[in-house]
Design brief:
Layout (H helix, E strand, L loop, with lengths): L4 E2 L13 E9 L3 H11 L9 E8 L5 H7 L5 E7 L4 H11 L2 E7 L3 E3 L3 H7 L7 E4 L12 H17 L15 E5 H6 L13 H11 L3 E4 L5 E3 L5 H21 L17 H16 L3 H15 L4 H26 L5 H4 L6
Parallel strand pairs: 2-3, 2-5, 3-4, 7-9
Antiparallel strand pairs: 1-4, 5-8, 6-10, 7-8
Helix pairs in contact: 1-2, 8-11, 9-11, 10-11
Length: 350
């Protein structure tokens, strides 16, 4: 679907359509402050500014992002488009269809790419090779970072260590499209992102799986660094986890052959004690819809207390919120006759 509006480029060009090596596509929703930081970081790239363009795809934001994009002066070609809120997958596709570069680099709006970021992505693609490249997205922390940011940073660091292992080949579950590059022709060939994924999560896994099935090789470039400025608090992360539960069920419906490889397939793998407690909590949540809000309030209290095992409690709480979302999605599908047998085979009950 075509965007509602497209802003004029900030850089001056001739009337001919310019030729770019790279198109950086940045989907954004209500991220004005972080967008400015990302766009300014892209102005400090070692790649010649005439070789890349940046497309800011605004997904219904009403926080001044459009006005920022129209006013910001940058040395590279910057274009922005705005559409009503349809989700990250749709915003990415809108930017991809507008892109003119040979290589599309997908970048989240809370990233600060290192100076050699674009050159590293470009160099990771040999001519004629069907390859998708994941770059590291470490979360920056300092002495003022709250516990939830430190927790997320530790999780991302573990993921990056796995990707950096010699000889390791990324799977679809290793791909995050907040720092990812792929030839534009290949991306269009597989149909881009699936816009059925409107809630947070799994649109990147789903795209990566289709790329693998189309013969695309996935690889990791440790030089293509984009630092993540993580500013979500626990309530926002809990909402994301519930959304991921919903989209995991959608993913399982679309790709039942790999459903068991998702978190949906791990329901019975927790400790007996946590399985019992989680089952009780989920039962209460179904009867008392405000239970998740109480769980969030409890976790906020724990954050203030800073118990020694806070990270462990984060893990348990986010696991609970994921299953709240997954069970809600299964109930919705059961009510409409669209329950996923693949998801049900993973051991989840409604």
């Amino acid at each position: 679907m075509l965007p509602t509006s497209i802003a004029s480029p900030r850089a001056v060009h001739t009337g001919m359509t310019p030729s770019f090596r790279v198109s950086v596509v940045i989907p954004s929703y209500q991220g004005c402050a972080s967008v400015r930081r990302t766009l300014e970081s892209l102005a400090r790239q070692s790649m010649d500014v005439t070789k890349y363009e940046v497309i800011l795809s605004i997904d219904g934001s009403e926080d001044g992002t459009r006005e920022l994009a129209n006013a910001l002066q940058v040395p590279y070609r910057l274009r922005s488009l705005w559409q009503p809120n349809r989700g990250r997958a749709s915003a990415c596709n809108a930017g991809i269809h507008l892109a003119a570069g040979e290589l599309v680099v997908l970048l989240d709006d809370d990233m600060e790419p290192a100076p050699d970021f674009l050159l590293a992505h470009w160099d990771a693609h040999a001519p004629g090779v069907r390859r998708g490249v994941v770059g590291p997205a470490p979360i920056r922390v300092d002495s003022s970072s709250p516990p939830i940011v430190r927790y997320r940073a530790r999780g991302m660091q573990g993921r990056l260590q796995r990707l950096a292992q010699p000889g390791y080949t990324p799977t679809f579950r290793d791909v995050y499209t907040g720092n990812f590059s792929i030839p534009r022709t290949v991306l269009l060939e597989v149909g881009g992102f699936d816009e059925a994924f409107r809630l947070y999560g799994h649109e990147d896994y789903e795209l990566a799986l289709r790329l693998l099935k189309a013969g695309v090789h996935l690889s990791y470039s440790p030089q293509a660094v984009a630092y993540q400025v993580y500013d979500k608090d626990f309530p926002a992360l809990a909402r994301d986890s519930m959304a991921r539960g919903h989209t995991a069920v959608l993913f399982a419906e679309k790709h039942p052959d790999v459903a068991s490889n998702l978190k949906l397939g791990t329901y019975g793998q927790a400790s007996p004690k946590w399985r019992l407690v989680r089952s009780l909590l989920l039962g209460v949540s179904r009867v008392l819809p405000w239970s998740p809000a109480c769980a969030i309030a409890f976790m906020k209290w724990l954050e203030r207390c800073r118990p020694p095992r806070l990270y462990h409690y984060y893990t348990l709480a986010l696991d609970y919120f994921f299953w709240v979302g997954a069970r809600a999605a299964l109930r919705q599908r059961s009510g409409t006759g669209r329950a996923s047998s693949a998801a049900l085979r993973t051991g989840v009950t409604r």
